[in-house]
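Lab notebook, bench 4. We co-purified these components, and the gel suggests they stay together. Before we commit to crystallization screens, I want a quick structural picture of the whole thing.
Request: model the full complex, all chains together.
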Amino acid sequence: MPRIASSGPGSVPRWILAIAIIGALFVVLPLVAMVVRVNWGEFIPLITSESSVDALLLSLRTSAAATALCIVFGVPMALVLARTSFPGQRIARSLVLLPLVLPPVVGGIALLYTFGRQGLLREPMNVLGIQIAFSTTAVVLAQTFVALPFLVLSLEGALRTVGTRYEAVAATLGAGPTTVLRRITLPLVLPALVSGSVLSFARALGEFGATLTFAGSLQGVTRTLPLEIYLQRETDPDTAVALALVLVAVAVLVVGLAHQAGSRTRAGGGLL
Amino acid sequence: MRFTFSATVARRGFDVSFELAEGETLAVLGPNGAGKSTLLNLIAGLITPDAGEAVLGGETLFRGRVFTPPHARGISLLAQEALLFPHLSVLNNVAFGPTSAGVKRADAFRTARRWLAEVDASEFETRKPAQLSGGQAQRIAVARALAAEPRLLLLDEPMAALDVAVAPAIRRMLRRVLESRTAIIVTHDVLDAFTLADRVIVIDRGHVVEDGPTRSVLEQPRDPFTAGIAGLNVLAGIRTARGMRTAAGDELQLPGPTGVTPGTACTAAIRPSGIRVSGERPAGTANSLRRVVRDLEPRGDLVRLGTDDLAADVAPALVADLDVTPGSSVWFSFEPSDATLYATAR
Amino acid sequence: MAAAVLTGEAACAGTSAGTAAGTSTPGASASAAATTAPAGTITVFAAASLKATFTKLGTDFEAANPGTTVTFSFAGSSDLVTQITGGAPADVFASADTKNMTKLTTTTLVSGTPVNFATNILEIATPPGNPAGVKTFQDLANPDITTVICAPAVPCGAATVTIETATGVTIPAVSEESAVTDVLGKVSSGEADAGLVYATDVQGAGNTVEGVPFAESSTAVNTYPIAALSATKSPELAQAFIDYVTGTDGQAVLTTAGFGKP
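Here is the predicted assembly.
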């Protein structure tokens, strides 16, 4: 009996391989189907139309801003979850991770009831003269809301894996908590921080439901690429498919770049 | 830099007190789980005691609600593993202490290079920790700990994870750098204690069971654990005219220092290699004790027979001849010249 | 999505026709009064905006014609056209605009000529109590009034553009939504002061929004055509349903829902 892929150490049974291939096809085939469906003759004009470019640029801009917010808030959140213990911590973790399982539309409604004109924070926001609804800020908020758990989750896991031993050593060498964070903890979890940020960016890029519900849809202001695709689908499937392909390409590009960056960091760090 | 320490941690059954004079190196011995790591973590400030007080050079480390955080204690901890920061070069690792203290980069690097030279590791300056062997990493960890100019240096079994081949060199280096330094070294190895420590305390189940100058504690142990790591058998009993009577009622003939008054508590230490094992009671031997063998453990080309209080190293052939298995009863005999007797009270 | 089920009942159409005759509702439409609908099952593909009215019409039709079953599939008109073109088993198609119906008539998928059965015009929807005090279409040009409209790519947005062009009023909309429901959502939640939706949407939203009709809406009247499809296996039943929709009873239901006369 010739054994091809399933011999040698670390091999898997053939039937596992078969199921894995079916699973991979399930993911890849729809992408192929989409590529096949693209009207290549018109592809460039379709994706360079004013509304398409506006949507792409808006998506990139808001996703970058959302990722930055995720880092600013997510790193401290992950640190608190991984390095401290307080009553109700398990509940706090579940709540923080809730947007992962929440339907995005529900997230949008929740944001509306918080930051909307009739929302929970209407008084303080009126006082400060802040109007978030229908603004690009609303898009960023919606994206941050759904993307934050990805960063917190991957970073908290990495913090737990790295453990506190290096931090303890650093402290006994005279480094204060902030120095330990800056020079030891963060460099050690940098690969996870990078991959978590990428996941957050990708999630923000694909955000649709919460944005639609909370931010509205206006070219150049709140109509991100997914919203543009959704709108074009109604009348111009060619544009919708072309833009969908652009979205996939951008996502693949970002994930690929970050993966490279991550593996470089890993190689240099010699850890994880 | 005088150091006084006294702390309890109820949850771990830990209650230890001791003092350390300026420039003194203290070895802490004890079985696994005795509380040695708890002790070091308490001193370093990585855990908090339930009660107690520790003062280093006049500064309180903890007392009541006062708690100095680890980074402000001036105490470096060298662990079993080097734990060099994997993302920093060797030089940056060693310079970590000085830079954390606010020393300028150039000065910190100068200090780091001096300590790298001190531990014979200058050549590794630009390497990353992943490119070092265990012994090299541990040398650099020593340099890093010392470059932080600690007022007290803690060493947690610094040679336990190293190859037997490199341990002697590290031990020599430690001996040099620990000279006249206030330090506490936790170890399993009696050789570490002999070479590095001025004084020894033995901890068992969270309590200090022995405390004294290294030689006195290790050559005249009172505690069975201490005797074990010192490679000795100890028997406790009462001084008699001819020797001693053990708690079990055995009469032993032993030479003894004139200082031990008959009727007082005394301890006899016997080297395992001085004990002969036989199936029948041997004639003409001064001391013979019948014991039940609890375990057999290969030791080089000999086998160590363990009982509740005595151990003997015998040839494998003898084990086979006598058909010794756990539970067998055999005779342990030794001449007075293979034992030393001393007062239990120090 | 196409939940069409053709049951075997169609085969019994001839035998059950006689019993159905006696129970025909006296108020049945003029054209359908003489001939009773044959028993059987038909599937009607109808625009999403017809969901409430057609569900009621279907029930009424079944009550008036025992032995008949009408099942529906509601979706956007363009989606339905895609499904029908793709071979979905539908007997009747009711579109929210003539444009999508035309897509089918040009491909001979429709049997006979489509009949217009209703019209719909735009209306301003405001949150309950109309906090911004919107009274006219011109008010929507005020940038202080937060207005949400449909994107030009979707029918209600196209109608909005038509009215804007006809009146010369430009609405500085804060959002151009892809669906009427999204416009309504923003208005009913109070995020927007006003939204432009169909009169039937205002009606259907109950008291979550308030309607402000405006005369300029007549410049963009949306016509709903209905037609039997060539693929139907029950052309008589399909026609009977179309007759019911265009008849007195059907029109009464549509009018109540806010639709205009064709």
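The two ends of chain B are 26 Å apart (CA to CA). Worth comparing against the SEC data before the next meeting. Chains B and C do not touch (no CB pair under 8 Å).
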